[in-house]
Structures are given as C-alpha cells and as structure tokens.
C-alpha cells in the first residue's frame, strides 16, 4: 500500500520516488555511520591530545588532500558514467592510470616530509613520510565505490562503506587512546583504510568479466581531474594558511567548527550520487529540466536543517569537545550558513555538468570559485584571523552558487 502511494506521488510530481527513497535510505544510513565515526574520531582527538597535535593532524590531512589530486580523483566520475553505460572495464583501466600518477603525489609528500625533518619537526616530518608511502593505496582503491555507484547497487555500496569506516576508525581511536603519538596515529589511519579499500576493490574487480572499455572515459577522467584541481587546492588552502600564518591551535579550533558545519554536506553528496547515474542516461534538455525544477527546494530543505543545527551549536560543541573548543561555536554557526547557501552547487557541479560532459563549464566554475576563495582567504585571514577564514568561506560559496546557476542557465541577469 505504501509503495502504491509513493508511486502515485512520484507520478504526480514526475519523479521516481521509489528509486530515490529506497536508495537514499542506504546512502543516508552509510553517511550516518560515517558521520558518527568521524565524530568519534574528532572527539577522541579533542579530548585525548593537545590542540596543537590535533592541529598538526589536520595539517597533514590537508597536505594529503592537495597531493591526492595527482591520484586523478576525477577518474571516479568517469568510471561511474562508463559503468552505468556498460563499459565495466574502465574500472581496471582507470585505476591503473590513477596508480601511475599517484607516485608523483607520493614524491611531493616525501619532499615536504623531509623538509620538516630537516627543520627539526620530527612529528610532522615522519607523519608526512608515512603518508607518502600509503597515498596510492589509500586513494586509488576507493575506485570500487565509483564502480558500484555506476551499477546503482547502493545497498552494497552502503555495506562496504560502513564496514570500512567502522573498522578503520575504531583502529585509529584505539591507537590514539594507547599511543597519543602522531606518527603512529597516521600509520594506523592510512593503513586501515588502505587494506579495507584494497579488499573491496579486489571483490569489485573480479566482477569485471567484460573487456568492453571506453578510451574516451579515461580522457574524460583526466579532464575531470584537471577541473577539480582548483577546488581541491581551495578545499585545503584555508587550513594550510591558518597553520602557517596563525597556529596549529587555531587550526584545531577552526577544524572543529568546520567539521560540525559539514554535517549537512554528506546529504549533498547523497543527492548528487543518486541523481548522477540517472542524468547520465538523459538527453541534455531532460537533464536540465530535472534539476531546474528542484534547486530551490534543495535550498529550502537545507535551510530548515541548518537552522536546527545553528540552534544546537552552543550546547553540542562544548559538550562533545569540552570547553576548550567553545570558541568554535560562532565559527560553526557561520559556516553552516555557507553550507545552506551552496546546497545546489554540488548537484550541478558533480551531477549535472559531468553527466552531460560539460567540461568547459566545470573548468569555469571550479577555477573562478577557487581563485576567488583563495584570494579572499589570504586577505581576510591576514587581516581578521579565524573570523576572516570563515567570512571568506561564506563569500566564496555564495559566489559559487550564483555562478553555477548562471552557467546552468537557471538564472538570468538581463
């Protein structure tokens, strides 16, 4: 009976509600577990180690994040699209391509690690050298998720993600509890994820019996990666500049605020993941009509959830992380506003444009938003400290929203 009502409502609003409700349940469950694990890890760090050490941890993750662009993360989008159209072999070919380029990322990480060792910062230096060793495995084996997404096997994807996240984070938390040594913690974290992702990649790759590949998909994956370079740099630039211009303690405070505000972000990824395979099978006119009708509803829904989170910030953050992170409350509230503002951007950026292979528009959006964000972060952090970093984030995301809507043709300024 419920199924019939859902079907009728879906027909009325011209949306496959059964597909979205059923598969969003799996993805929301997985994201909920991932968020809980991330919360457990951050709370463990906040309560058991100093703010300076937690800041260094986030600094290492940010450098890994920038170097990870050399693992060709855009190949995941190409793999999903190719698998959705029957070209399963792209999982193998695309991952091989990723491994080749990831060696360069490892070399850069090793170089930065050696710099810090020579500067007598043993913890940072050794942590980055460990990251150099694990980068190819930690990043590239995650390609299996793109394959499963292309198959629309969201229940299976959720199961694999939950197993990986729970096991890896529990190992890391136990190491933090018993060791408190940053290098050992980095080893535990990266090794756990690498082994688990490697196992599930092996499971997925054994299913690829067809030799039907798509050379164009590899080229598309390369282009998608290039399009992501500015955003990848911008995504970690704020943490790096805070560490370099302010302090690791400031970075710890900022990281807690950012992590709490990003509670809403997985919901954007879920929507984009569900929409992308469907948009890939639509013609251009139908795909744009599908997104145009609903971007305002996305913002409205995020605004309601965001308002609740803003009200909870003053109570939840000190309770979870202790009073030494009370300064994170205001920054978290402001950053939640930026998440609400940019709610439709990920759908356009990661679902609509890629599904239609609008590479030039992706370049325009990624480059312009990132350049604006980097300039704003640099100027405002220098002049206003942590508050400047938060204001820069809000302004950058507002710019991304209006520019992405304009590129998609949903807004006109004439």
Describe the structure in brief.
By secondary structure, this protein is mostly helical. The chain is built from 17 helices and no strands. Helix 5 runs antiparallel to helix 6.
Descriptive account of the structure:
This protein has helices at residues 2-13, 17-48, 51-67, 75-84, 90-118, 122-140, 143-150, 154-178, 182-205, 215-245, 248-261, 265-280, 284-292, 295-321, 328-341, 345-355, 359-407. The protein is mainly α and 414 residues long. It is globular, with a radius of gyration of 21 Å. The chain starts with a helix and ends in a 7-residue tail after the last helix. The model is unreliable at 8-15 (pLDDT under 50).
Instruction: Give the overall shape, derived from the CA principal axes.
Output: globular
Strand content: under 5%
User: Total helix count?
Assistant: 17
Count of discrete domains: 1
Order of helices and strands: HHHHHHHHHHHHHHHHH
Number of DSSP E strands = 0
How far is the N terminus from the C terminus? 48 Å
How would you classify the helix and strand content by structural class?
mainly alpha
- Whole-number mean pLDDT: 83
User: How large is the radius of gyration?
Assistant: 21 Å
The residue fraction in helices comes out at over 70%
Which runs of at least 5 residues are low in confidence (pLDDT < 50)?
Answer: 8-15
Major beta sheet summary: none
């Amino acid at each position: 009976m419920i199924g019939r009502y859902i079907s009728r409502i879906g027909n009325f609003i011209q949306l496959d509600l059964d597909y979205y409700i059923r598969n969003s349940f799996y993805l929301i469950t997985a994201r909920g577990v991932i968020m809980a694990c991330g919360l457990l890890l951050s709370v463990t760090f906040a309560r058991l180690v100093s703010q300076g050490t937690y800041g260094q941890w986030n600094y290492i993750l940010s450098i890994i994040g920038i170097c990870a662009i050399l693992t060709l993360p855009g190949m995941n989008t190409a793999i999903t699209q190719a698998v959705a159209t029957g070209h399963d072999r792209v999982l193998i070919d695309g991952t091989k391509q990723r491994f080749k380029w990831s060696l360069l990322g490892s070399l850069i990480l090793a170089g930065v690690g050696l710099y810090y060792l020579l500067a007598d910062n043993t913890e940072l230096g050794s942590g980055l050298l460990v990251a150099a060793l694990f980068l190819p495995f930690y990043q590239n084996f995650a390609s299996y998720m793109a394959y499963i997404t292309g198959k629309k096997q969201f229940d299976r994807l959720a199961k694999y993600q939950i197993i990986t996240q729970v096991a890896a984070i529990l190992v890391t938390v136990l190491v933090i509890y018993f060791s408190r040594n940053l290098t050992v913690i980095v080893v535990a974290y990266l090794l756990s994820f690498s082994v688990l992702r490697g196992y599930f990649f092996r499971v997925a790759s054994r299913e690829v019996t067809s030799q039907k590949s798509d050379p164009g998909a590899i080229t598309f994956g390369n282009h998608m990666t290039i399009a992501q370079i500015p955003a990848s740099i911008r995504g970690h630039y704020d943490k790096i500049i805070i560490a370099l211009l302010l302090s690791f303690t400031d970075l710890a405070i900022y990281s807690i605020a950012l992590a709490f505000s990003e509670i809403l972000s997985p919901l954007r990824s879920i929507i984009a993941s569900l929409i992308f395979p469907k948009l890939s099978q639509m013609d251009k006119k139908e795909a744009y009509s599908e997104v145009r009708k609903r971007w305002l509803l996305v913002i409205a829904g995020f605004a309601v959830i965001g308002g609740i989170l803003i009200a909870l910030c003053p109570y939840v953050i000190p309770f979870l992380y202790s009073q030494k992170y009370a300064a994170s409350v205001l920054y978290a509230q402001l950053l939640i506003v930026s998440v609400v503002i940019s709610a439709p951007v990920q759908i356009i950026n990661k679902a609509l444009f890629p599904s239609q292979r609008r590479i030039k528009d992706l370049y325009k959006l990624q480059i312009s938003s990132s350049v604006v964000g980097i300039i704003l972060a640099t100027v405002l952090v220098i002049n206003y400290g942590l508050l400047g970093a938060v204001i820069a984030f809000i302004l950058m995301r507002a710019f991304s929203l209006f520019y992405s809507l304009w590129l998609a043709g949903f807004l006109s300024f004439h």
